[in-house]
Amino acid sequence: MDYCEGGDLFQKINSQKAMLFPEEQILDWFVQICLALKHVHDRKILHRDIKSQNIFLTKEGTVQLGDFGIARVLNSTVELARTCIGTPYYLSPEICENKPYNNKSDVWALGCVLYEMCTLKHAFEAGNMKNLVLKIIRGSYPPVSVHYSQELRFLLAQLLKRDPKERPSVSGVLDMPFLSCRIEKFLSPQIIAQEFRHTIRHKQPKVYVAQVPAGKQTDETGCIQIEPPSSFPIHFSLTPWMASLV
């Protein structure tokens, strides 16, 4: 990964000192985050630690998604992971309730990051872990300022749906007209054609997929039982364009 002189999004948010970001800036960052996450999800990989501290900015303001230390590969697009892992403020309701989860938990965390960009605060905050979990499970958070467009506020509500089945996929998010029109600002026509062709979800070149160590045990669902990331590193071979985003 390239060195990002612009720091991370968390630092950028904290430096605002209560001055809200313009919507144009938020959407430009958000689309880039979605493009990186779409590339990962298309290859059946869960990031599992989407947060503002793992979103880095170059000196020019280009976004890069980082820290795949606890990512994991699913055997299929419908497989559910079972390991409770991630950063507390961004945990999805299904993880808090110790239920199986899939890429829609990354989508929830994406919604938490979007909320953070819009309000400069976490969507869910509490003085202790128990109360934080209760707030997340209830799915109740302070509204975003009407300073932002109805489209943006509607998108946020969709990302933070308590039921993961009701949340859009990252591809569905990028299909929204007010976001799709921005994609060409960050990707060439050739890469857009490559990344958005339907077959990318079905033909997975091995070079893109994280390597799961041999001999790992599986549970009754066929999911890999994952050890803590310190003893289970995951290594990626990146395409040139993905390397510029993640």
Write the layout of secondary structure elements.
Elements lengths: L8 H6 L8 H20 L2 E2 L8 E3 L5 E3 L6 E2 L19 H4 L6 H17 L9 H10 L11 H10 L10 H5 L2 H4 L8 H8 L43 H4 L3
Could you characterize what this model shows?
This protein is mostly helical and 246 residues long. It has one domain: Transferase(Phosphotransferase) domain 1 (Transferase(Phosphotransferase), domain 1, Orthogonal Bundle), CATH 1.10.510.10. 36% of the residues lie in helices and 4% in strands. It is built from ten helices and four strands. The strands form two sheets. A two-stranded antiparallel ribbon has the order 1-4. Strands 2-3 form a two-stranded antiparallel sheet. α4 runs antiparallel to α6. It is globular and about 45 Å long. It starts with 8 loop residues before the first helix and ends with a helix. The relative contact order is 0.17. The C terminus is likely disordered. Belongs to the protein kinase superfamily. NEK Ser/Thr protein kinase family. NIMA subfamily. Its EC number is 2.7.11.1.
The helix-strand sequence is HHEEEEHHHHHHHH
CATH architecture: Orthogonal Bundle
Q: How many DSSP H or I helices?
A: 10
SSE-based structural type: mainly alpha
- Name of the level-1 CATH class: Mainly Alpha
Characterize the biggest β-sheet: 2 strands, antiparallel
Overall mean pLDDT stands at: 77
Beta-strand content: under 5%
Low-pLDDT regions: 68-72, 76-80, 199-246
And the CATH topology?
Answer: Transferase(Phosphotransferase), domain 1
**Count of the domains:** 1
Let me know the number of strands: 4
Distance between the termini: 7 Å
Shape, principal axes of CA atoms: globular
CATH homologous superfamily grouping:
Transferase(Phosphotransferase) domain 1
Order of the strands making up the biggest sheet: 1-4
**Helicity level:** 25-40%
What would you report as the Rg, rounded to the nearest angstrom?
A: 17 Å
**Multimeric state of these chains?**
single chain
